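Quick one, tokens below:
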């Protein structure tokens, strides 16, 4: 609920009374005032989300009062109550900054419509303010490997449902990116997508972040604040690294997942929400359950549809695709003319194990793009990557003759140079499973030279045939 506290300012007692009864029946916190002076006292003591304000009051014009309200922090929405239904009066009210108007006499059904309109507007404003501070990243999942193809299929299947999803995987694999994609593929894609980094918020504050708090509920709570679940009403919430929250808060989170309701910190009003929950973790939560670090019932509530994001070492076919994608992106961002990757650069990328996964690859490429000379291909050395060492062929120990001088070798004992070269090339290809780039690195020749030599050998074979 985006509206909580409402102030009624009208000099007619029966209007104040009837409005107050209607609003209290809907469980709003209501205050009343019969004049501008009395209303200003109420505003000093409390903040309000909505004010019903009579246009003509004993000590002043309501339109002048609304202009003063427009310069205050956390200004409330104002609904002007007017006895004159003329269009000129309505226009004047709106120009003064009123959210809506209510002509006298009015029916209580009109009040209900205004409350819904104001509530929807306030929620939209608060969600927009939040998203302006924490924007949603919209990036494509890059890759063509079987593991990524399977992952994209799972995202597509579960995205269109309202199922709770648990996304697990090592740090740097792109769990948040998967969550974003699920959201964008859902029926809630045009609704709020609110994220909570459970590992980055202190234990003392995380309950307030989840559920909000009332003014004065703890030191520093100078105003009422909506929690992330309330902001996400109608949309989706992402609990990033959910394994990091305390057992005490896990119990309260379980209630939200089961009942879709909660109370703000320091409050007693039950707030109901319609929220889809996505969660991520880099831990094995079943092991955490066994150790007593995570509630078993909460685990099963979150793990309705599990998705495991594969580490980069299990999708090596995507490494070069990702590296080229990041290089193009960072070259544009930093205004750099890229020369691509050298043969040693590609070999180094493919040989590295990537313990930090896609995030490590991204950081390595960005750093190299900044350090590289314009137009010069990026080498493995520039990226700080080590090439695989060539496997040395075993050599027989030389036979030393103590008395006899070494005899000159006969022609039959010497292998022609071109034959040695040919054998070395085929041995390198065998050791690299036919990978020409890596074979060229082992032989310390260019890939072009290797291709030319292989073409030459094919020609020799054809002539021999």
């Amino acid at each position: 609920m985006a509206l909580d506290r409402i102030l009624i300012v009208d000099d007619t007692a029966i209007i104040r009374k009837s409005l107050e009864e209607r609003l209290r029946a809907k469980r709003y916190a209501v205050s009343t005032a019969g004049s501008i002076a009395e209303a200003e006292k109420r505003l000093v003591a409390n903040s309000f989300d909505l004010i019903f304000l009579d246009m003509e009051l004993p000590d002043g014009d309501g339109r002048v009062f609304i202009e003063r309200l427009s310069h205050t922090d956390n200004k409330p929405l104002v609904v002007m109550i007017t006895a004159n239904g003329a269009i000129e009066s309505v226009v004047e009210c709106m120009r003064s900054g009123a959210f809506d108007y209510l002509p006298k006499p009015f029916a209580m059904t009109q009040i209900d419509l205004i409350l819904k309109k104001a509530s929807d507007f306030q929620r939209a404003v608060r969600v927009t303010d939040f998203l302006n501070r924490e924007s949603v990243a919209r990036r494509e999942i890059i890759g063509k490997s079987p593991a990524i193809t399977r992952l994209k299929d799972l995202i597509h299947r579960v995205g269109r449902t309202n199922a709770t999803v648990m996304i697990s995987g090592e740090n740097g694999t792109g769990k948040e990116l998967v969550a974003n994609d699920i959201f964008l593929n859902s029926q809630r894609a045009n609704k709020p997508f609110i994220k909570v980094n459970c590992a980055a918020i202190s234990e003392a504050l995380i309950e307030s972040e989840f559920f909000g708090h009332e003014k004065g509920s703890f030191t520093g709570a100078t105003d009422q604040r909506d929690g992330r679940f309330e902001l996400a009403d109608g949309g989706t919430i992402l609990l990033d690294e959910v394994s990091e929250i305390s057992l005490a808060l896990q119990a309260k989170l379980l209630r939200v997942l089961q009942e879709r309701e909660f109370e703000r910190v320091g409050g007693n009003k039950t707030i109901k929400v319609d929220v889809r929950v996505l969660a991520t973790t880099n831990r094995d939560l079943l092991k955490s359950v066994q150790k007593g670090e995570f509630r078993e019932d909460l685990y099963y509530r979150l793990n309705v549809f599990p998705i495991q994001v594969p580490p980069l070492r299990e999708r090596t076919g995507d490494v070069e695709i990702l590296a080229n994608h990041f290089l193009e992106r960072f070259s544009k961002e930093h205004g750099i003319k890229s020369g691509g990757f050298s043969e040693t650069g590609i070999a180094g990328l493919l040989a590295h194990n990537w313990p930090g996964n896609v995030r490590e690859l991204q950081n390595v490429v960005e750093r190299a793009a900044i350090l590289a000379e314009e137009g010069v291909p990026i080498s493995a050395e520039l990226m700080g990557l080590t090439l695989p060492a060539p496997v040395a062929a075993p050599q027989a120990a030389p036979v030393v003759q103590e008395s006899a001088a070494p005899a000159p070798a006969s022609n039959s004992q010497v292998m022609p140079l071109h034959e040695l070269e040919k054998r070395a090339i085929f041995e390198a290809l065998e050791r690299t499973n036919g990978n020409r780039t890596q074979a060229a690195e082992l032989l310390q020749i260019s890939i072009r030279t290797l291709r030319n030599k292989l073409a030459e050998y094919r020609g020799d074979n054809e002539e021999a045939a």
